[in-house]
Write a structure and sequence with these properties.
The structure is a homodimer of 692-residue chains. Chain A is an alpha/beta fold and 692 residues long. Helix content of chain A is 37%, strand content 21%. The first copy, chain A, is built from 24 helices and 31 strands. In chain A, helix 12 packs antiparallel against helix 14, helix 19 crosses helix 20 and helix 22 packs across helix 24. The longest helix of chain A is centred in the middle third of the chain and has 19 residues. The radius of gyration of chain A is 32 Å and the shape is flat. Chains A and B meet through helix 2, helix 5, helix 8, helix 11 and strand 16 of A and helix 2, helix 5, helix 8, helix 11 and strand 16 of B.
Chain lengths: 692, 692
């Protein structure tokens, strides 16, 4: 990647003599951004562009440039890239649009591009990209003139669009380096992450993601970085309409958004959902050492904002720090004995009576930061442009506070009033201090640093890729496995199943029931009756031989009447189980592969969607986390005199299921519904496996 | 209220000669803000302040001023107010803190203040307030110098804090008028709303609310305005920590936040949850005519932002407009036949190939606005400070577009890039155009205008206050009514109940069951066993006389063993019902009075909290809305071959319950759990009424 961000020399194909307004000339922009290395320009007719001699073809260029940047029309891209490859150029940026982002022809062109480079080990960034930006070394391939940060921050952006480079302020706030992978035909998030992992100038990684490829490798690489450098991800296309739009933008196929959540969770990525949150979180990481606990002390010039902060803490997972008693005697003022001191600390009355508001703020900030129970401070105060309020200045005082504090603990500020913007810019320069656009933004930012702190401490290393095991494949002539045949596979993976047998002989069923014990259940097994309950193909609570016999014959007749030509595997007779009705499942995600699901089963399952997903394989601890984070978990712990369900068995079964999912990529979908959870264990009662 | 916002003359008590920085002198601030009327100053020792002669006491003032503004220490407030009342002053602002916001003594002082004014019909604003602001007429009682809007917007703020006046930009963006009710000892939201209703300079009403009083009257007044003028409410103290903080800020007792939701919903208020949302929504109302449908057309310079917009639409209840076919031929460019035209419209390729991006934007905006299926446009485009991009100017073009459009349909913009802020300020001046801080903000704002459109169309007028009816009070010696005694009250309000009787004779139970039909249920009725299921006091599925007899004796013994001195009303024998298990309830909210609740019953009720609340009385339509918006509603419509539940019966029962709640303020709490819903109707099975 180094050649893409800091090339020794550059070849440009597709620039013209057009300059200035509306030209979008990337030679002009590159020079303005600060690139000082040699630039070779290929042009079919001009002899010189902006003082650079031109060459008729790539072959004529006197050196092998480190990087080629191609911005010709899509039909000319493949020949130009062929020339570059032939020349021996190893790194190519294709700016041009109209590939997988456009139509079938574009997709075919992109495939050609990839194959002709991959064979030769040539790396391609794009197509449909703005390319790279490097404020440290002064390099940009953009065709839009972007302001270069004079003191580049250690933040690297990897995006699927150039808009995050053009609209820096609105997205990450500032940029040290950026890579726009565009359609990501070759270089993708994995390559960019690997670069960031080793780059000493990257301390914070921000991803803007529309889709994913090699999901497992991505997660493995991300997980290896996530506890050293925060990885913030804005994954868009969350909604159905958004996912459709993503497909037409970069040709990204987007899977279920909840699976991305599960994947990010597993790898330790910090997901943000909006631009507002992205800005806030980037700012926090750029200014703060992470909060080492959830406790926030709030200093405010107004009680109203204390209330809003308390609300925001609950929204984003922080809490109000206990008010330190040591601070009480320091701050109390006998002239307003009625003034209540607590957290949030309403400072205004103290400032009005005690003299100056900034002085009180300084004293309070010191006292609260000194408390072990405070992990960060949010200071909320006014700054007015009016000369009447020229005393409301905070830079020097916060500098003093942070010197004593050693800027160990974050001080987030929100300044309001008509002089606020300039004040905020000054305060942002104080180490360990950052001003946010509002209370919610400040709390979002702080909360993200605390999340990163917890990621740093996470001991368990997760596994994303397990070596392939050679095992017998699951086979089914019609691609679907039901009843006992499916249950047999569950047992192989240690998932307990309800005792049962399948037969077409009523007497065999009666005999089996007699031996195993009543009550039993009878179920029709047929690919025509997959939703057998709805079809009336299940009879429960059969507690003597006669009833079993009668129900058996009844079911046979009912099925035959409904499906005269249906394929009847037999009638399953099963010991009747009871307990909490749950469901297990396997799904296969286009990006991340096998996903296991656990949730509430039964008739309410669909409306409440109380499910947790995790990428297979899952460890026992992960399985327990999934179960204990279900909404119905309090019930599983035991209520109303009922004993708790045996959670360890459930978790162990889930681990087994995740192994099955991993070992058998031929399983497209698997549903165990229901699984009963009870005091002594758990038990799968019905299973359906779809291959494909 | 007029005298509070535009007084003919003002009396100030509590100002000093201190001036300039740090003085917070409200005489100085008032004059700077633009008040030109006569100001009388009372001061015990000075003879003159800022050129105003002073008076030793209120009595000495030569006129009766229209408004008094009091900012002395809390101990001197009552005597000063007494002087004002004696003088004949009708309107008083008490700036001072330390009342119900502080301690018991402060609360008592506030009560004194209220009673001495109420008797004389004198109105008080505050205490603990910044008072009022009126940018039209140039009046402010604030002690902080606030910039006066040169072209005041028709937006009036009613708040419980001065911070929304000081931090205008961060909250409502701009302010025409503001009223800070502070502790709200006398003037409260209702008074302020009535003023706003009739004020021709108020078209948008914004409430910042920490707590509520006279909730019913408030809602009635609000509902009478809400379809003419949008009422936007930022209700804080949503969280438990926030509610605690609210109590200590303005002494507001805050009830359950979900009840506020139900109340706002009923009255047609537009609730916002964060400052970000408040700013966005205010801006939308200040700039736009409401969207008359949910369809948004998106014009964007980048596909990435189209995806983000699609996500935001789903988050906030808008949808992407269908792309109008008429626009296709207008915008298509044969040079990039691969370019996909749809909504969101990615304009950049068209701009690059077709000439100028702004030209394409203009053409596209016109074409999309012309479509009947487009209700608003969101335009997303870059503006760079660089001279290389000086062509990216939009003001004139949007002006042309809006002239053709007659600014009927909103054009929301989001401009990014390093020249964006100045461009946004210019665009904000184009009628019907508003620039937002980001995509989410734009969509939030637009969605609020569409919500207001629907409120304008709402035909049904809701009732908040019903004349009190003289009725028999519900009585119970120990404050709790159980079993049949409670069910009797349900029947009086037309709520069907399961047939049952209470007896302490086993044979009477057997006889009743025989007559009514098996199976039956037996339940212990005792105030000691309110949670009788958990205590083992319920036996179900009894289907013959012997079983009933055995279970009856068993229950008697079990109760006696557990509670030797317990009070046993008897054993209830009840026909066993079945169906969907639901619950009904009545709660009494401190602000809004009787609230009815409907939700999922049974063992999952607590973990899923699938309930809907509404203020009593509820109409049949409201009751149907509550039921159909439950998450379990799809099940009630009938699933898996089961017939649908009889929704009309459920709704009618809920209406009856809401009448009971309204007629019987002595009912503190009522729970019907379960109510069974089935194909033919519904039926209450158990009820508990708590009085108090």
């Amino acid at each position: 990647m180094e050649a893409f961000l800091n090339p020794k020399s550059v070849l440009l194909v597709g620039v013209t003599r057009r300059t200035g307004v509306g030209a979008y000339n990337n030679l002009e922009v590159m020079r303005r951004y600060g690139y000082r290395g040699p630039v070779f320009v290929v042009h079919p007719s001009e002899t010189e562009i902006f003082g650079h001699p031109t060459y008729r073809s790539v072959a004529e260029v006197p050196q092998v440039p480190d990087l080629a940047v191609v911005s010709v029309g899509r039909d000319r891209v493949v020949p130009v890239v062929e020339d570059c490859v032939r020349k021996g150029i190893r790194n190519i940026v294709v700016i041009s649009q109209g590939f997988a982002d456009a139509d079938a022809e574009g997709r075919a062109l992109q495939d050609t591009l990839v194959s002709l480079c991959r064979d030769k080990g040539v790396r391609v960034l794009g197509p449909n990209t703005m390319g790279t930006l490097n404020a440290f070394d002064g390099f940009s391939t953009a065709f839009i003139d972007i302001a270069r940060d004079p003191a580049p921050p250690p933040l690297t952006l990897v995006a699927q669009s150039g808009v995050l480079q053009v609209g820096i302020e609105s997205f990450t706030g500032r940029l040290g380096k950026a890579i726009d992978i565009g359609n990501g035909c070759d270089i993708h998030f994995v390559d960019a992450l690997r670069y960031c992992a080793d780059d000493p100038k990257t301390e914070i990684i921000v991803l803007h993601m529309e889709g994913m490829r090699d999901g497992r490798t991505f997660l493995e690489v991300a997980a290896s970085i996530a506890s050293r450098k925060p990885i913030v991800v804005l994954k868009t296309g969350r909604s159905r309409a958004g996912a459709r739009a993503a497909l037409s933008h970069t040709g990204s196929m987007v899977g279920e958004d909840a699976v991305f959540d599960a994947a990010f969770q597993k790898a330790g990525l910090i997901r943000v959902r909006t631009m507002v949150e992205l800005r806030a979180v980037c700012k926090a990481f750029l200014h703060f050492r992470p909060m080492v606990g959830p406790n926030l002390a709030v200093l405010t010039a107004t009680g109203a904002c204390g209330i809003m902060t308390a609300d925001a803490c609950e929204d984003f997972g922080l809490q109000l720090a206990p008010f330190p008693e040591a601070a009480r005697s320091l701050l109390e003022n006998p002239k307003i004995a009625w003034h209540h001191l607590g957290n949030p600390v309403d400072l205004w009355p103290l400032g009005m009576v005690g003299g100056s508001f900034p002085e009180v703020l300084e004293k309070a900030a010191e006292a609260l930061l000194a408390s072990e129970d405070t992990h960060a401070v949010l200071a909320i105060f006014p700054r007015m442009a009016s000369p009447l309020h020229d005393n409301l200045r905070y830079e020097a005082l916060l500098r003093r506070v942070q010197e004593k504090n050693g800027s160990r603990k974050p001080i987030a500020c929100w300044v309001y009033g008509d002089g606020a913007r300039e004040e905020a810019e000054r305060l942002d320069r104080v180490p360990g201090v950052a001003c946010f656009a509002g209370i919610d933004e400040a709390v979002m930012g702080l909360a993200a640093t605390y999340r990163f702190h917890r990621l740093r401490q996470r001991a368990v290393s997760k596994t994303f890729v397990v070596p392939a095991q050679v095992r017998e494949k699951i086979q089914a002539p019609k691609g679907m496995l039901l009843g006992e045949a499916a249950m047999e596979w569950l047992r192989r993976y240690g998932i307990p199943t309800a005792p049962s047998m399948v037969t077409d002989e009523p007497e065999a069923a009666v005999g089996w029931a007699h031996q195993t014990g009543f009550p039993v259940v009878l179920k029709v097994v047929s690919p025509q009756w997959v939703h057998k309950s709805d079809a009336g193909g299940v009879v429960t609570g059969l507690d003597d031989p006669d009833v079993v016999r009668g129900a058996f014959n009844d079911l046979m007749q009912r099925f035959r009447a409904a499906c005269p030509d249906g394929e009847l595997t037999g009638i399953q007779v099963q010991k009747q189980m009871s307990g909490w009705e749950m469901l297990f499942g396997i799904k296969r995600d286009p990006q991340f592969g096998p996903v296991v699901v656990v949730g509430m089963g039964g008739i309410y399952a669909e409306v409440f969607q109380d499910v947790r997903r995790a990428l297979a394989p899952v460890s026992f601890e992960e399985a327990m986390d999934m179960i204990t984070s279900l909404r119905l978990y309090p019930l599983l712990r035991g209520v109303r005199g009922q004993p708790p369900a045996h959670l360890e068995s459930l978790a162990a079964a889930l681990v087994g299921l995740s192994k099955l999912a991993w070992d058998h990529p031929e399983v497209a979908e698997l549903d165990i519904n229901p699984v009963f959870a009870f005091a002594e264990g758990c038990c799968a009662v019905d299973c359906r496996i779809i291959l494909g």
